[in-house]
Structure formats: C-alpha cells, structure tokens
Amino acid sequence: MLMLKKSALVAIAAVFAVTLAHAQASATAGAAPDSCEAKAVGKNGKPLAGAAKASFLKKCKADTVAKACETKAVGSNGKPLAGAAKASFVKKCKADAAK
Q: Which region is the signal sequence (predicted)?
C-alpha cells in the first residue's frame, strides 16, 4: 500500500513537471514573434496605433531580419565575412527572408 502511494505521488509530480516545462516552452515560443509588437510603445508609454504602429512594426521586423542575417554571415572557414562578401550575403539573406 505504501509503495502504491509513493508511485502515485511520483507520477503526479512527473505530470506536474512536464506540464510546467511545456507551459514555459509555449510562453517562450510565443513571445519571440511578438517582440516587435511588445516594443510598439510611444514616448508617453501608450501603445502605438494606426500608421505609426504599422511603420514601427515594419522597421522592427526588417531590423530583426538584418541582425539575423549579419549573425549568419560566416564563411566556410568559420570566420566572419567582411566587406563586399558580407554585403552580398546579407542582401541575399534579406531577399530570401522576404519570400
């Protein structure tokens, strides 16, 4: 009987841990795409609306893509690209991301 209670307690704790881990993973995954949306706040602390919000979101998403592309700009030897090679890679990366 005592063994059954311990097994049940362990099973409940495992279910709780898995549920908690899943909830955290879902929250983290959902927050990433909305980071620009969360930053769309005016100087007065109020959320942006209309054309100002649309413009901000467009610029924010473009900046996010550019930053990601620059991070990926690494040559086959593992060294970061520079100059024209980097510019060409970033341009192609941005174009591919827009598709």
A: 1-23
